[in-house]
Amino acid sequence: MRLELDPTVYRMEAVQKAAYRFIDRLAVVLSATQRHIVCELEVVAGVKTPLELLLSDFKRELLDQQLRLQIKEETAPVRDLVLAYAFSRTGLQG
């Protein structure tokens, strides 16, 4: 099964994370062109789940991983501020 993704919608990092989450069920080979991120998907030997169901779950995982990256970026300034404040109170500074 070949899945072509728009790189303006999904980043390679998100696709790699989704593929890793499915490593026990799907063999995923990734490649990229200027226009697409290409996923070649194959069911791992011994897995009984139909490819259509695995593909549906994989697509949901892709969206989840992409949104996690976006949220991480959007909340980075607040997270950094909280960490800076927490470490400023420890006396660990040189």
UniProtKB/TrEMBL annotation:
The organism's superkingdom is given as: Bacteria
Name assigned to this protein: His-Xaa-Ser system protein HxsD
